[in-house]
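Sequence in, structure out.
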Amino acid sequence: MPLPQRKIVEELLRKPFGPYRDEEVLSAECQSKPGKTLVLNSFELAYNDEIIGLDESEQPLGTGEVDTRQFRFRGILTIHSPVWLSPVGVKQVEAELNLRANTRSMREGERPPSTITLEALFNRKTGYLWRTPVPGDNDEFELGLRLKIQGFKNFPALYMTSKLVPDGLFWHSKDCNRAYEVATMDIHTFQLSENFFWRYRLLALMIKIVGEGRTPLEKRTPEWFVTQYLERFAHPASDEHERLIYDSTDSDIINADEGKTYLPRHPRRIHRRDILGLFAAQSEWFVTDNEVKRKRIFPFKPWNAFRKEVRKARWHAARNNVIWGWPIGRENQPDLESDPDNEEGDDEYDEDDEDTRNVVERNPIIGKTNEIVRRKIDKAKTRRTLPSARRVDESSSSSSSDELDPARVHAYMSDFSRESSSTAPNSSDESVDERLPEFAGLIPRQLSQVPELPGPDNRWWCPVPDCGHMVDLQRLKRDDIKALSATTVFYLMEKKWRSIREDERAKKCFFEMVSKHYEDHFADLGFRFIQTRGRVTIDSIRDKRRGQQSAVIVKEEVT
C-alpha cells in the first residue's frame, strides 16, 4: 500500500514512540559493534522511581558486598534497521504509529489512511527511512524511527575508560548485555552526575600523566600530579594564540573560523590549591575503588595519608566558612562538634564505665556502631559544656511570644539547658530533662541552628553529615509535602511565588518541611518534641520493650 506524503510521515514520527522495555521490543541483532554503537539520547536513571545520578548507581565506597539494587534507565534510541526489533516490538510500534495516523486524520477531517507498516517505511526503494534526503525535504528534522527504551543496569557505567567509546559514556543493559553510547542526558540526571564526570575526567588525566612519563610509582604523590598538570597541561602552547569566544570582525583575529590571534593571550594562572582541591574531592574514592587500585597509577600509603589530611582540611576550612575539597553535591558543612583528629582509631574513650556499656548494648542506634556511640557518650560526660565558638546564643531560644516564629519551630532547639527543657516541676519527664546536657554531644550541631534558605536553584541540602537529603521546591516529592496541608501544597505547586526569600508564605512552608525532616533525625536518636505554652521542649521516647525506664538517647532497633 502507498505511504502517506513525507510531511505527514514526518509529523507522525516527530515524537518518540513508547516507552517500551528493551527486553520486549529489541531483538538480539540490536547490538553495539566496533565503529557502530547504539546511541541513547535523553538518558535518565532512576532508583525506587526517583531520578538519581550516576554516582548513586555505583557501589558504596569501602564496601565489598554484592550490590543487589535495581537501577532503571530510559533513553531514546533511533532504529536504523527493522531487524533491530523483535516481532512483538514491530507489532507494538506499528499499532502506535497507526493510532497517531488515525488521530491526525480525525483532527484534520480527512479520510482514514491505509495501514502503515514498518516494512514499507524501511523499503529501500519507496520507504522514507532508507531514502537519501532530496531538495525540498525538511532539513530541520532528521527523519527516523525513535523509541523510548527502558531497561535495567547490568554493569557499572564507563566514562572515558571504554575501548568502544574512549571519550564518552558507555552503558550496559541486562537484556542481552546490550551496550549503549550515551550521547545526551536528561538535565536532572546530568546535574546529579556532575561529580561522576569530574571524577573520571580526573582519572583519565592521571592515566595520561603517568603514561607520558617514567616516574617511579612511589613518587606519584598528589603534589606530584598537581605539578605535572600545571607544567604540562594547564597552559598548552596552542592556547597562546587561540580564543574560544571572539568577534570575527576583531582586527586581532587571523582566522575567523578557528579564532587564531596575532597577539599572544595571557590566561589566568591557576593556583596549586585549586588543582589540589580537585584531587581532595575524590580522595576517598581513589583509595577505596577496586578498579582504581588495579590500575596501579599511584602508591596507596601516601594517598591514604592524603585522604586523612583532606578530612582535617575540610573541617578547618568549614570552621572559617570556606568550602574546599568536597565532591560536587556534598558541599554540606561537616560536623564541627567532632574533631577529625579523634575520629579514626582513637583509644581515648575505650575504657567505658559499666553504665555506658549497658545503655549502649540495650539500645543500639541504627546506622552507628556501638564503639562510636560509647565514645560520644563518654565525651559528652567529660565535656558538660560546649566551647564558646560552638554555642548558640541562649537568648535566641527563649521567646515570650505565644506565636512561634516558623524559623524556630520544634526542630530547632538552640539550647538544651534545664530551664528551657522542663515545663512543670511535677512533670514525670523532669529527670530526663536534667540529663539532657550530658547527651548534647549525641545531637548533631546542625539540628540546633535555623537552616539556611535555598539558593537561586530553590534547592536545600540537609546540613547533617552523611544525610544527603534534598528539598527541591521546583520538584517536590511525596515525602517533602506529607506534613503540609492541602492548601499549602497547592500554593507551592502553583509556583506563583518568585523567590522564597521574598515570599513569607513560601518561606514558612519551607521551614515546615525542614522541621519535619529534622524531626526524623531526632526520632532516630530517640527524641520527640513537646510544645507547651508557646515553648518547645524535647523529651525522650519511652522504651516500649521494657516499659519501666525511659531510653534517653537511643531508639531500639526492631529485628
